[in-house]
Specification:
By secondary structure, this protein is α/β, with parallel strands linked by helices. It has one domain: 2-Layer Sandwich (Gyrase A, domain 2), CATH 3.30.1360. The chain contains two helices and eight strands; from the N terminus they run E-E-H-E-E-E-E-H-E-E. The protein has helices at 16-25, 70-78; strands spanning 2-6, 9-14, 27-33, 41-49, 56-60, 63-69, 83-90, 93-101. A hairpin with a 2-residue loop joins strand 7 (83-90) and strand 8. The longest helix is centred in the N-terminal third of the chain and has 10 residues, at 16-25. The radius of gyration is 15 Å and the shape is globular.
Amino acid sequence: MKLRIKGNSLRLRVSPSEMEQLLQSGRVEETIYFGADEDARLTYALEHSTQAEAMTVRYRPREVTVLISSREVRSWAEGNGVGMYGATGSAQGPLELAIEKDFACLDKAAAENADTFPNPKQGVVC
């Protein structure tokens, strides 16, 4: 899973295998380590729940989790839509959220495009 942060926005890009894991287990996560100290890490996760009504974020020390409804994630996974988009409140205004399928880049080698969704814009350079 890829994480992009810009200003007050957060975007997750999900591969096909991660989508499958999300559907089966209800959660997919990655951890980045910033140093030798075990606490110098950040886990970012995507989780679905039948109780979730709107896309939101749960923040805990060293972990950020985007929560989405089980119904919406299943519809997105089975459909042709690129992503799910929403916003949630924060102390500094709305936090924009995007969860998108990770598409193959057409100007990359096959090895670099492993475990990506087929690109719907074939013929266009990424």
